[in-house]
């Protein structure tokens, strides 16, 4: 059971979910996040339900990662319907590194789930070095995570790219139980990438997972 309102939850999540640029309607990343709770409540009143996981898995005619898209990355992938990608500014990347104590990778892009009626995001972290395996990259990434438990690692491939994936739970003093999270690491000739799915709680995670799977299924080395 949730112990806080959506508005309060969003205020907490806004610290770790900076978009790095303004949204289309002129709101800054932090301002847009601060209004997520109110937006979500309004959507529920208007429609009686939020977007489902099935809807989140549909394509939105958007592939990011290549030159000329919202985010230029070592990989490209398709973005789920309603999700909004934005490049992370150098200032946001520096702030996130400081807040999270993260030095192994740098925040490069965030795909915001709020426009799809969900509370969370997928953040893309990158590093220029190519001498580490996906599992080594993921191990370093998880060593920087806090309040985690039940980590389960697996070795896999994403297309022709070697990859490693982890599912885990993250505790929060604001929730009765830990929230499931997921991360995928791949190595490419242009660098390493970690795709990190961050959801507010288990319900949001379930609804957001199809968007993560779409990104994973369609991921290719950026040309």
Automatic annotation (TrEMBL):
Q: Which InterPro entries match?
A: Lipoprotein_23
Point out the signal peptide segment. Answer: 1-24
Pfam hit, one: Lipoprotein_23
Its keywords, alphabetically, are: Signal
Q: Where is the stretch described as Disordered?
A: 23-59
What spans are recorded as compositionally biased (Basic and acidic residues)?
A: 40-59
The entry's protein name is: Lipoprotein
């Amino acid at each position: 059971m949730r112990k806080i309102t959506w508005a309060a939850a969003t205020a907490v999540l806004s610290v770790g979910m900076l978009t790095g640029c303004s949204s289309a309607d002129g709101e800054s990343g932090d301002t847009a996040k601060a209004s997520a709770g109110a937006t979500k409540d309004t959507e529920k009143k208007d429609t009686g339900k939020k977007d489902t996981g099935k809807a989140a898995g549909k394509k939105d005619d958007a592939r990011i990662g290549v030159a000329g898209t919202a985010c230029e990355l070592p990989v490209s992938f398709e973005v789920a319907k309603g999700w909004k990608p934005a490049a992370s500014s150098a200032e946001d990347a520096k702030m996130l590194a400081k807040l999270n104590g993260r030095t192994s990778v740098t925040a490069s892009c965030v795909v915001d789930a709020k426009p799809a009626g969900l509370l969370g995001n997928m953040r893309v972290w990158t590093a220029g070095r190519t001498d580490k395996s996906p599992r080594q990259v993921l191990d370093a990434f998880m060593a920087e995570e806090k309040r985690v438990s039940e980590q389960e690692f697996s070795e896999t491939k994403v297309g022709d790219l070697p990859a490693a994936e982890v599912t885990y739970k993250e505790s929060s003093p604001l929730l009765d139980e830990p929230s499931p999270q997921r991360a995928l690491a791949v190595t490419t000739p242009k660098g390493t990438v970690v795709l990190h799915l961050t959801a507010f709680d288990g319900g949001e995670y379930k609804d957001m997972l199809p968007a993560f799977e779409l990104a994973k299924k369609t991921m290719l080395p950026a040309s």
